[in-house]
């Protein structure tokens, strides 16, 4: 593994550790609902401050269950990851194509007895 | 995590919408200008938008025992300047409001202000500031992305505290409460976002150095700089 790849792997490992540690260390223990979303916590804080507050608008479309919702979130991440992968794949292909062409040209030049 | 649908009183919802609108319009113009002037930017623009899409879909556990998600706006703000990121961020928010019931249409103005305007500008400001002092590129990128992420949720806390001041302790009390929910939760996530943005920037340095040079992010080095200097 090159030094570059090692650094990249280390970065990913650090991110994974940052996500896993709070769960592994049980930082959600003793909570009513461990690792609930910050947005739903804010909603309950609002009802605490202003018990009479009623949301005056509801989402036009709401995923029918938590499973469908997580599927849609996964879809969002997959769309993004797909575009990113396309970008980096295309770039890599172009770079390799360029290097390949240069190699071929150099080969042609050599066979003609020219300096590449 | 954005402010949920209907959870800002109408007056606040309208006010944040009015505050955000000029930034979005200006951003849309900046975006079309960029695409017209540099059609080869389109791919990298798509990649920046895609990065925001991925990162804002990932709900990650945090030290507070709750979950939140990064924003992914630092990368685009550094590459294309904040106005362009405003458009990409607003599109992401709209997608989440319409399909995922996450955030909302009535709170779109407020959420766009925090995630697509305040965050990108704060991150970009930190990035430019550090750049002035010749800090290594990857360090400037880390802190740019870190602050873009964290400031987003500080602004969210302020928005909620303004709308719902605590009956006894007023705005400061409410700010402490919402800040504890959003901003503290966000600190480790902002670190993660910084690291991931550095990772993507490293990959871009390998694959798209010429684009980064054109955008003023990277400098010409080594062989390329010598050929340039020889001209």
From TrEMBL, chain A:
Please provide the record's keywords in A-Z order.
Cell membrane, Cobalamin biosynthesis, Cobalt, Cobalt transport, Ion transport, Membrane, Transmembrane, Transmembrane helix, Transport
Q: What's the source species for this entry?
A: Streptomyces cirratus
Could you tell me where this protein is found in the cell? Cell membrane
Subunit info here reads: Forms an energy-coupling factor (ECF) transporter complex composed of an ATP-binding protein (A component, CbiO), a transmembrane protein (T component, CbiQ) and 2 possible substrate-capture proteins (S components, CbiM and CbiN) of unknown stoichimetry.
Encoding gene (name): cbiN
What protein name is recorded for this chain?
Cobalt transport protein CbiN
Lineage runs: Bacteria, Bacillati, Actinomycetota, Actinomycetes, Kitasatosporales
Residues of the region (Disordered) are 97-116
Origin: domain of life? Bacteria
In terms of InterPro entries, this protein maps to: CbiN
Q: Does the keyword Lipid biosynthesis apply?
A: no
Topology in the lipid bilayer is annotated as: Multi-pass membrane protein
Task: Give the transmembrane region(s).
Answer: 71-90
Return the Pfam families for the record.
CbiN
Q: What does this protein do?
A: Part of the energy-coupling factor (ECF) transporter complex CbiMNOQ involved in cobalt import.
- Indicate the family of this protein: Belongs to the CbiN family.
The biological pathway it contributes to is: Cofactor biosynthesis; adenosylcobalamin biosynthesis
UniProtKB/TrEMBL annotation, chain B:
Q: Pathway, per UniProt?
A: Cofactor biosynthesis; adenosylcobalamin biosynthesis
Q: Any idea which UniProt keywords this protein has?
A: Cell membrane, Cobalamin biosynthesis, Cobalt, Cobalt transport, Ion transport, Membrane, Transmembrane, Transmembrane helix, Transport
Pfam families attached to this UniProt entry: CbiM
Instruction: Kindly give the membrane topology term recorded for this protein.
Output: Multi-pass membrane protein
Which sequence ranges are marked TM in the entry?
Answer: 41-58, 79-102, 108-127, 139-161, 181-204
Q: What is its main location?
A: membrane
Subunit structure, per the record?
Forms an energy-coupling factor (ECF) transporter complex composed of an ATP-binding protein (A component, CbiO), a transmembrane protein (T component, CbiQ) and 2 possible substrate-capture proteins (S components, CbiM and CbiN) of unknown stoichimetry.
HAMAP family in the cross-refs: CbiM
| Protein's job | Part of the energy-coupling factor (ECF) transporter complex CbiMNOQ involved in cobalt import.
The record's comment on protein family reads: Belongs to the CbiM family.
This chain belongs to the protein called Cobalt transport protein CbiM
Source organism of this protein record: Streptomyces cirratus
The gene is: cbiM
